[in-house]
Amino acid sequence: MSNLIKHGAVVEDNWTLVRYPAVEEAVQKQAGKVVQFKLTGTEAASPELIAQVQIPAGRAIVPLAVFRARKDELAARIAAGEIGVWLESFELVEDLVAAVGDVNTLPLIAYDFPKFVDGRGFSAAVLLRTRYGYKNELRAIGDVLRDSLYFMQRCGFDAYQIRADRSAEDALASLRDFSEPYQASVAEPQPLWRRHARA
Amino acid sequence: MYRYDNYDQRIVDERVAQYRDQTRRYLAGELSEDEFRPLRLQNGLYIQRHAPMLRVAIPYGLLASRQLRKLAEIARKYDRGYAHFSTRQNCQFNWPKLEDTPDILAELASVEMHAIQTSGNCIRNITTDQFAGVAPDEVVDPRALAEILRQWSTFHPEFAALPRKFKIAVNGAQSDRAVVRVHDIGLEFLRNDAGELVVKVWVGGGLGRTPIIGQVIHEALPWKHVITYCEAILRVYNRYGRRDNLYKARIKILVKALGIEEFKRQVEEEWAFWKDGPSTVTQAELDRVSAHFRPPAYEKLADCDPDFNDKAATNPAFAAWLKRCTHPHKVPGYRAVTLSLKKTGIAPGDATAEQMEIVANLADRYSFGELRVSHEQNLILADVKLSDLFDVWQTARAAGLATPNIGLLTDIVCCPGGDFCSLANAKSIPIAQAIQERFDNLDFLFDLGEIELNISGCMNSCGHHHVGHIGILGVDKDGSEWYQISLGGQQGNEATIGSVIGRAFAAADVPDVISKIISVFVEHREGDEKFIDVVRRIGLDPFKARVYGTPAVAPKKELANV
Asked: What is the DSSP letter of B241?
């Protein structure tokens, strides 16, 4: 059963999310230090790791670093609309734009939330939807919990891969937590005072 | 003051429903401790030493009498009959039950109140001058823009999970009573040479572990851009602020790391995309909100009342209170009144349900049904007629709310400290009480003049010790409580971070140390010189010498260290 919410309903997921092989984390822990924060713009994954990533047939969402390094190899599949890209929380929307030119050539962009309290993805979504005019699917992945959905939706996400141990059906209700927000956002570009005459 | 329309009311009602469901899921085990924590914090609920603590928002410190009565009712019904007013102009309940908090929020919503974003890594309650709208030195009444910013920041989706908390203060007076320079963003409203309303924007100030005075990022921003400019600042912060280290996550660290010039460049570059967009505030919206802050129906009075003069001349206790607890008003014949929550023996900022009801009645009878909370943790009646001051004083005195110590040594700003707060390293309330007991002689206090003494129980600096003329910081050394003293801090237009005088003291020694500091001041004072001016003039060495009994570090050695 899929745990994907898209356009306000639980739907089948016809994409495969390609993560890095799990060895990476083990290596970091053995080094005695878990690196939680990386300066934005740095390459997190090593060239070896990027090369190791197996990309299955069919529609696949690949890490930005893999997309950049293996663009030529993936060219035919990119042209066929089979390749989506996901960003790590410390990666910049600008780097994605530099890698693809027109973001609308991608059928799907996903943004990873390593922890649900990490709000960098909210700004990334706003930038993608406004400054870069991205119109296709924008999916939240990672530690995605229902209490973030309302905010994510307003920032421009339209798909949410709810964490596997939680019910996507239950989470649907949180998309409707509030009916008339105050401020402008991607979902509602006018602030309340421009939408309605107020007392 | 601002009254909710249907949209405002629906938002707080929907919040109560959302929080009720979150609490239900937590109690049912559907949300883990770690998952519930940020949710409850963004609703002002901490889990403290003895019980949860619920922090209720008092936007820019403004309260209606019916709201204060509701706080009193909640204190009785769900707490132990009292509440604590904080240095962020909020109100805290120390003993509610977690299970009751959704009901408490529903009660608050019934009087247009909430606990939204009073904690957590989001934009917090916006604070301002407790004399907004009545201060003679006011250039612009900041309350309408503060309300517009309150609405903008409420559930702002992009800034709901910032690297760390984010505090905005606004000021519209010549004298900065909102301490805008120690906030993440400080907004100072003023008029330019053409008479237009502009905003001087400060960024990257803050107390806490790394106290920093903010820097000016924009000298004169046209007011209509205030939202888009704040959004640009917050977007740069949300993207680049550190998230790896709790203690380096505030915007002040980012601003310091980049330098104000580079930070400003990034903000301006971001702002260029949003400037003049839909979030640009319109004159119509400013007018709509400003209409809620129209001056009340003041009577036309002379700024003099023979009967009042008589009482002031013949009643020394009344005169003392007038001197310390009343403040000039822009309308002739009126004064603002501070009701002191700093009576000796009471935790600074605490008020009982009975006192809150008395204050609500005073507000209804003498001050157009409104009051304010100051960041110095006192309550303010902003619009009292001269001819009513004597009655107000008598009622306030009977209720223990007329200690004439405002601005004096015993008007101590103090966080709840280790008695209540789970973050604290040390207790702060007993230190405040010991100092208040030591300096209980009012005549002596008057002679000493204005001295601000601030106490924080830990580095988080809720007691604003860095900007106290005398600052006391509780520190933990090998599991016991010690107190570090600093001198020379200052709030206002000349905001300055105080300097630590030396090694810390045990709790029992603190009153003696303060006595020694005061004695040095008295010996060096010229005429009516203020404490802070004496510290500036003579420096720290005479104080260190008296307190530690030996001369401070010799200048020669200091030079050698350079």
From this structure: S
Cβ within 8 Å, pair A37-B245: yes
CA distances from B215 to B145, B185, B205 (A): 21, 9, 7
State the residue range of the domain holding A119: 1-11+59-179
How far, in Å, CA of A15 to CA of A8, rounded?
18
Between chain A and chain B, the number of residue pairs with CB atoms below 8 A apart is 112
pLDDT tens-digit readout, B314-353: 999 999 999 999 999 999 999 999 999 998 888 899 999 9
- Rounded to the nearest angstrom, the minimum Cα separation between A97 and chain B is 16
In a domain, A128, yes or no: yes
Tokens of B184: 């993440």
Q: Is residue A18 included in any domain, yes or no? A: no
Helix (H, G, I), strand (E, B) or coil at B522: helix
Instruction: Name the band, by pLDDT with cuts 50, 70 and 90, for residue B421.
Output: confident
Predicted confidence (pLDDT) at residue B481 exceeds the cutoff of 60: yes
- Residue range A67-95: mean pLDDT, rounded: 95
Query: Contact B415/B87 with Cβ under 8 angstroms?
Result: yes
Asked if B114 and B15 touch (Cβ cutoff 8 Å), the reply is: yes
Place of tokens 């745990």: A3
- Determine the Cα–Cα distance for residues A116 and A148; give it in Å rounded to an integer: 7
The class (CATH top level) of B413-561 is alpha beta
Q: Cα(B432)–Cα(B452) distance, rounded to whole angstroms? A: 12
| Distance between CA atoms of residues B452 and B475, nearest Å | 20
Question: Which two structure tokens, joined as six digits, stand for A99?
Answer: 């890698």
Asked if B169 contacts B181 with a C-beta cutoff of 8 angstroms, the reply is no
B78 phi and psi, to 5 degrees?
-115, -5
Among candidate residues B258, B153, B152, the one with its CA nearest the CA of residue B203: B258
Of the candidates B485, B516, B510, B482, the residue with the CA atom closest to the CA atom of residue B500: B485
**Residue intervals in chain B for CATH 3.30.413.10:** 134-290, 413-561
Q: Is B152 in Cβ contact with A182 (below 8 Å)? A: yes
Q: Report CB contact under 8 Å: B239, A123.
A: yes
The answer to whether residues B230 and B149 touch, using CB atoms and an 8 Å cutoff, is yes
Question: Rounded mean pLDDT of B208-229?
Answer: 95
**Phi, psi (5° rounding) for residue B326?**
-120, 155
Secondary-structure class of domain B306-398 per CATH: alpha beta
Instruction: Name the CATH architecture for the domain at B134-290.
Output: 2-Layer Sandwich (3.30)
A56 to chain B nearest CA, in Å? Answer: 32
> Collapsing DSSP states into helix, strand and coil, what is residue B505?
strand
Cα gap A49→A156, rounded to integer Å: 31
The answer to whether A180 contacts B11, with C-beta atoms less than 8 Å apart, is yes
**pLDDT at residue A23, rounded to an integer:** 55
CATH code, domain carrying A88? 3.20.20.70
How many separate domains does chain A show? 1
Q: Identify the CATH class of B6-109.
A: alpha beta
Chain B touched by A43 (CB under 8 Å) = no
Residue-wise pLDDT for A136-193, tens only, equals 999 999 999 999 999 999 999 999 999 999 999 999 999 999 999 999 999 999 999 9
Which chain B residue is nearest to residue A89, measuring alpha carbons? B239
